[in-house]
Design a protein that fits this description.
The complex is a heterodimer of chains A (239) and B (241). Chain A is 36% helix and 25% strand. By secondary structure, chain A is of the alpha/beta class. Chain A is globular and about 50 Å long. In chain B, helix 5 runs parallel beside helix 9. The two termini of chain B are 21 Å apart. Classes of the chains: A alpha/beta (239), B mainly alpha (241).
């Protein structure tokens, strides 16, 4: 579903992403781990067509982002880091705007908007403007926006960031329930999250993939260590 | 191209979701009318039933007011990160640029048209040449589009609204001063007349003046339209870079 091949992105003289390759199949939840600045967000931005790679390619459903970005964006739901949104709009206005851009016009708009609101439990704040929402609600609005068109692939940049433990759990359940018919990439700093919902882990350090395996295999590297200790030993060169 | 509509709707509605729109409309109308009625404008003293005294300030007013509208077009999106959201939705950069430009242009058009009570006053007090009046309105709207194209472009170049405003102001001022007779006379001092003429042809004033006299010259219309086209093209290039 998502195929990434030798992606390279340089900012000035710095190589933020240095030849990252992986594939994600339908039914996979891929946990994207790495220290800050390792190139997680940059890789995600290239998959979603926001940044152009210096070389390499990203394909979604066999379509190259560089060749037909609009077709790829139609098949993707993307939650950017910090869930940016237009602060002066209400939740409903914002989701209706997304629905219209996604091609749901007129009465066809209400179905997907209602569904997204329900899935992310946004009913209580539906008429509230986004600038008045708490971080948790804002994050959920971003999530609702990404799910609105029921995309076959989801790219989520730190979806549980800023949520309280209950909300985190809820979002994880939501992702898990959808996973059977979708390909999901999510980046996170929380290692338990990977254990809880992901069936694959990629650890990226200094722009390179250092680990691509199942959480069980990762644990098996050092059977008696905690995941964060393994993580630290693998990414030490970064700090 | 069907994606232009939602972008336009969101952007245009956005003006009215915050106090920005109302503050802007009031300020623009109060200042423009006050200038015309003041002794600099001499709206009543001239004793002519026309709005020429009102429109003659427009190139100068737009110098400040259009950058105020245009500065947030892209700077704000880039600063708050919503650009990332917008450009990962299935729309092309061109759709987004056109949608946002048209929304801001429609807003400026609204500001210009809301001066209609002054036109009614003129009609009540005398018998103005309505053709000239409509021409002036059309010219003002076209000129606003020209200014806005420049502002939209500078706004795409920076995350800071302040920088965007100042650079827009300078760019628009340059395009304005090229047409002042004092400046063209100065140029003619050391340049061949043909070259000086060509330079002054890039000015807003040169092309706007004809409209306020009721002359619709295709070359003036083409000037404003091609200025918009050119700046919006550069705008797309800047954003895709």
């Amino acid at each position: 579903m998502i195929e990434v091949k030798d992606l390279v992105k340089t900012y000035g003289s710095k190589r933020a992403v240095n030849g990252v390759s992986f594939t994600v199949q339908r039914g996979d939840i891929l946990g994207f781990l790495g220290p800050n600045g390792a190139g997680k967000s940059t890789t995600m931005k290239m998959i979603t067509g926001f940044l152009r790679p210096n070389s390499g390619s990203a394909r979604v459903d066999g379509i190259d982002v560089a060749v037909d970005p609009v077709a790829v964006k139609k098949r993707l739901g993307y939650l950017p880091e910090n869930a940016p949104a237009y602060p002066e709009m209400t939740v409903e206005e914002f989701l209706c705007f997304i629905a219209e851009v996604r091609g749901f016009r007129g009465p066809a708009r209400d179905g997907p908007v209602d569904r997204a609101v329900k899935l992310t439990h946004l009913e209580p704040v539906r008429k509230q403007s986004l600038e008045t929402l708490s971080k948790g609600y804002k994050q959920r609005v971003g999530f609702a926006q990404a799910l609105l068109h029921d995309p076959p692939t989801l790219v989520l940049d730190e979806p549980t960031d800023g949520l309280d433990p209950n909300q985190k759990n809820e979002v994880r359940t939501l992702i898990k329930n959808m996973a059977s018919e979708k390909a999901v990439i999510l980046s996170t700093h929380i290692l338990e999250e990977v254990e809880a919902i992901c069936n694959r882990v990629i650890i990226i350090s200094q722009g390179r993939v250092v680990v691509d395996e199942t959480p069980a295999q990762l644990q098996a590297r050092q059977p008696n260590a905690r995941l964060d200790e393994i993580f630290r030993s693998l990414t030490q060169s970064d700090t | 191209m069907s994606q232009v509509t939602p972008v336009f709707k969101r952007e245009f509605g956005g003006y009215f979701r915050s106090p920005v729109a109302y503050v802007f409309l009031c300020a623009f109308l109060v200042i423009s009318v006050a200038l015309a009625l003041s002794r600099f404008g001499g709206f009543f003293q001239s004793g002519v039933a026309s709005m020429e005294r009102y429109f003659e300030f427009f190139p100068w007013l737009f110098l400040f007011f259009v950058p105020a509208v245009g500065m947030r077009l892209w700077s704000e999106e880039r600063r708050s990160g919503t650009a990332e959201l917008l450009f990962t939705l299935p729309i092309t950069t061109l759709d987004a640029v056109i949608g946002k430009f048209l929304a801001a242009w429609a807003f400026l058009t609204l500001a210009i048209i809301l001066s209609f009570p002054l036109a009614i006053t003129v009609g009540y007090l005398g018998s103005p040449d309505w053709g000239v009046l409509f021409c002036s309105y059309a010219g003002s709207i076209l000129m606003a589009g020209g200014y806005l194209g420049v502002c939209s472009l500078t706004s795409a170049c920076t995350k800071s609204q302040v920088i965007s405003f100042v650079v827009s102001l300078i760019a628009c001022a340059a395009l304005l001063f090229l047409g002042l007779s004092a400046f063209t006379n100065f140029l003619e001092g050391f340049l061949p007349v043909g070259v000086a003429d060509a330079v002054s042809n890039f000015s807003f004033i040169t092309h706007f003046d004809a409209f306020t006299k009721g002359i619709v010259d295709p070359k003036d219309i083409m000037f404003f339209l091609s200025l918009m086209g050119f700046t919006l093209f550069l705008n797309v290039v800047t954003l895709e870079r």
